[in-house]
Automatic annotation (TrEMBL):
This is N-acetyltransferase. Keywords: Acyltransferase, Transferase. Residues 1-149 form the N-acetyltransferase domain. Transmembrane segments: none annotated.
Amino acid sequence: MIERAVAADAGEILTVQRAAYVSEAQLYGDPYILPLVESLEQMRKAIEGAVVLKALDAGRIVGAVRGQLSGATCVVGRLVVAPDRQGQGLGTALLRALHEEMPGASAFDLFTGHLSEGNVRLYRRLGYRETHRERMDDHLTLVHLRRVADPR
């Protein structure tokens, strides 16, 4: 089941986010990536100021994604799935639900690290296309992707 998150979900979503991003931190050799150092208060503010969807399984939050409109573009962030539930289609379901939740968006933009090949494959399967790369430092280049919304 996928539904909108509320402020009371912040702690559980933050726990899932941290668990999900440990592998990314290891991949890039950086334990201080933003999803790992985000505070509970920052998570609450994100839930209050953006569309945050959560995936539930028997009452447990097993995934989440954020979307924030910037003009007519939805900026997608923090797609996370609990490590024990990865590879079961939850990331796909969360992104599709976000696409449906943001009917006014003409496009969806997101980014991931260049070494995160599974993430790039997922986004491409869902219609995202690479727009550019942005070198952040010696160990990280961000891959920016965009999906043009389906015409209604």
